[in-house]
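The following record pairs a protein chain with its ligand, iron/sulfur cluster.
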Amino acid sequence: MTIKERYRLTFAYFSRTRPLVETELDWTDPFELIVSVILSAQCTDKRVNLITPALFEAFPDAKSMALAEPSDILTYIKSCTYPNNKSKHLSAMAKMLVNDFGGVVPSDTEMLQRLPGVGRKSANVVASVVFRQPVIAVDTHVFRVSVRIGLVKNATTPLSVERQLSENIPTEMMHNAHHWLILHGRYICKARNPLCGQCGLRDFCRYYAEIKKKKSPEFKIRDRKSRFS
Ligand code: SF4
């Protein structure tokens, strides 16, 4: 199977089974999304969504958060992972938004990456979700699922996965592709125990084909022979 065919089948499946897809983070404006994305590093979206209502009530925009000290922000985000670092990042990020960007979240990924706490992945999430730019953020789920299905070759870094996905996913599908791959990794193609039996991609998934080959009687005989030779 060619890689093009694998892309076509994968995204035709997602388009058919999950035509409407969005981030699981709760947000109402770009500022809320960027704050939620910073909080979501190494933390679940569920946990972030529990934290943000009170946080946004206290600090509804960049201006109010810029006036706060990290210790003021920390009070609201204690149940998140790495709360000390994240409160410092949020305070500095809000200050830079006010001082350098007039309080407005920029749409450009290079500009976004200048903000404290915002790396390439987070910048791509904001650019894609808020500004509908054709960029794809590669987190642990996107990385794993892309490698397993066989959408990427010799992938060693998130950047190499991002480049290969960007070259092959049609521009108009880029926004959805990010969410499709994340949700598939979160609920079906899990890190430890992928639920291949429930997966609609298994007929063209490279990982599944390899597992099937290993479990075939022919493989077992060859495997046994190789172990005793
Ligand atoms: S068949 Fe299995 S490994 Fe392949 S994408 Fe589906 S769950 Fe993941």
